[in-house]
Amino acid sequence: MGRTFNFMHFVVVCLFFFCIVESEAKQPLAPALYVLGDSFVASGNDNIQNTDAKANYAPYGIDFPNGTTGRVTNGLTLVDFYAQWLGLQVPPPYLLFNQSEKHTEGFNYASGPAGIRPETSTVDHGVFLSMDKQVELFKKTAQEYLPTLFGNPDELKDYLSKSIFLVVIGRNDYTQNFLSPKYNSSKKWNMKQFAEIITDELGSKILDLYTVGARKFLVFEIDAMGCEPAFYEKQKNECSDKLTSYISTYNHKLEVELQILAKTVRGAIFALAKRYQLMYDLVANPTRFGLKDSLNPCCPVSQSGLCLPNQAPCKDRKSQVFFDAIHPTEAVYSIIANQCFNGTGLCGSLNLQELLYRMLGARNFVVFEIDAMGCLPVMLNTPQPMPPKTRCLDQVNSLVSICNAKLAAKFNELGSFLKRLKVSPCKDRSSHVFFDGTHPSDATNKVIATDYRVLQWHTSMFPNECPTTRAEELEP
Ligand SMILES: *[C@@H]1O[C@H](CO)[C@@H](O)[C@H](O)[C@H]1NC(C)=O
Ligand SMILES: *[C@@H]1O[C@H](CO)[C@@H](O)[C@H](O)[C@H]1NC(C)=O
Ligand SMILES: *[C@@H]1O[C@H](CO)[C@@H](O)[C@H](O)[C@H]1NC(C)=O
Ligand SMILES: *[C@@H]1O[C@H](CO)[C@@H](O)[C@H](O)[C@H]1NC(C)=O
C-alpha cells in the first residue's frame, strides 16, 4: 500500500513538472502587449480622428494580410512582429475596439502625429492622440475596463506587472514642434534644454503608467531621422547633420532619464532600443542587411513625405529600406524588432526576452530534487527478498534519478539564460534519519537546510554532485 502510494506520488510529481514545462511552451510569453507612440507603431487610431495624418489608403498595407489598416508601412510593424513572437493577438487600435468585448492581450494607443509635448503636431495635423491622451486612455483601461475582466485586484496587478509596454515616440517633437517656425519652443529653449524638457516629460508619463501597474518597459530612441529620404542631403551625399545633433542630444538624455527611473522606482525594468545607430548603419550599408536601396522611397511621395494615394509602389519592397520618405519597410521593421527581441545588437543584453524572464523581486532560488525515494523505510516494507547489500528499491531510484537529471538540466538551462538569476538545484537528502515511513526527522531537516552536500547514506547510486555553496553565500 505505502509503496504503491509513494511510487504513484513520484510519477505524479514528475509528470506534473514536465507537463507544466511543456504546456508553458505554447502559452504566450507575456500576458499582454501595450503600445504607446507615433506613426512608427500606429495601426489605425487616426483613421477616425480629425487629422490629415492618416495612412488608411493604398499603397499603405500592400503587403499586410488585411490590406490597408492605418499602418504607415507596406506590411507588418514592430508591434506586429512582437505580438507574433510573444504569442499574442496583435493589440487592436484602442479607438477602433468595441469596449463591450473582452480582450486582455493589450491595446495600441499610438497615433501618427503624436509627440511627447501636447502641442506637438497640433498646428498642422489637427486632433489626434498625444502622449498625454494615450496615457489617459491606458489609465482608463487599467482602472475601468480591465477590472471587469479580472477576478480580483491582485490578479490584475500581477497581469500588469508581467505585461510589456512598448514606447516609441519623440521624433515629432522635433519636426512638428522644436524645428518648426510655427512653434515657439526654439525661442524659449536651446537644443539641450528642449531635450531635457521632453525626456523629463516622457519620464513622468512613464511614471504615470507605472503608478497604475506597468512594470516592464521597452523604450525606443529616436532613430537617424537625418538619414531618411525626406531629410537626406542628396547633393552632399550624407545624412542631415543638423538633425543628427538634435537627435543625439535627445537620445543621450533619454538614456540618462531611464537610468534615473530605474534607480528611483521599485520593481520596474526599462530596456532602451538604440535604433539610431542601427538605422544609420542600414542607410550607410544596406547590403550588409540583405537590402539594396536606402536612399529612395518605395512609393511616390507628397511634400509631407507620405505616399501619394493609390500610386503604384516599387516592386522589390523586400530590398528597400524606406517605404515612404520617412517610414521603414516591413523588411527593416523585422530587422529592428529581431535585434531587440533576442539579439544583443540593439538593446544590449537587456532585450525583450530578458525583459520577459526577469523576475521582478525574487532573484535567488534553491530548488530541491526529489530525494532517494527508493530508500524510504516505507519502500523497504516489501514482501520480496531484497538483493544483498542493498536497502533501496533500484527501479524507483532510477526513475527518480532520471527525473532529477532532467530537473538539473532544466535549471542549468534557465541559469545560463538568466545570467542574473541564481538557480541552484540541490542534491538529494537522506541520513538515518526518518521520523515516519516517509518523512525525515528534524535532525535530518537541519542538516539539509544548512548544507547542500549529499548525505552519504546508502545512496551510492547517486554521484555526489551537490554544489558546495551554502545558502547564506548566495546574494541577498
Ligand atoms: C484581419 O481581419 C480579420 C477579419 O476581419 C480580423 O478578424 C483580424 O483580427 C484582422 N487581423 C489584424 C491583424 O488586424
Ligand atoms: C459591441 O459588442 C457587443 C457585444 O459583443 C455587441 O452586442 C455590439 O453590437 C457591438 N457593437 C458594435 C458597434 O459593433
Ligand atoms: C507662440 O506664441 C504666440 C504668442 O505668445 C502664441 O499666440 C502662439 O499660440 C504660440 N504658438 C504655439 C504653437 O504655441
Ligand atoms: C531568436 O533566436 C533564435 C536562435 O538564435 C532564432 O532562431 C530566432 O529566429 C530568433 N528570433 C525569434 C523571434 O525567436
Key descriptive features of the protein:
disordered C terminus, disordered N terminus, single chain, Rossmann fold, 15 helices
CATH class category label of the largest domain: Alpha Beta
Order of helices and strands: HEHHHHEHHHEHEHHHEHHEH
At the fold tier of CATH, the topology name of the largest domain is Rossmann fold
Q: What's the number of structural domains?
A: 2
> How would you write the strand order of the largest sheet?
1-2-3-4
Shape: elongated
Q: Note the beta-strand portion.
A: 5-15%
The secondary-structure class comes to: alpha/beta
On the 0 to 100 scale, the average pLDDT is: 84
Radius of gyration: 29 Å
Helix share, percent: 25-40%
Q: Low-confidence runs (pLDDT<50, min 5 residues)?
A: 1-5, 14-25, 452-476
CATH superfamily of the largest domain: SGNH hydrolase
Q: Let me know the number of strands.
A: 6
Count of individual helical segments: 15
> Which architecture of the largest domain would the CATH scheme give at its second level?
3-Layer(aba) Sandwich
Name every ligand kind in the structure: 2-acetamido-2-deoxy-beta-D-glucopyranose
In short:
The chain has 15 helices and six strands. It has two domains: 2-22 and 362-473, no CATH class; 31-357, 3-Layer(aba) Sandwich (Rossmann fold), CATH 3.40.50. It is 38% helix and 6% strand.
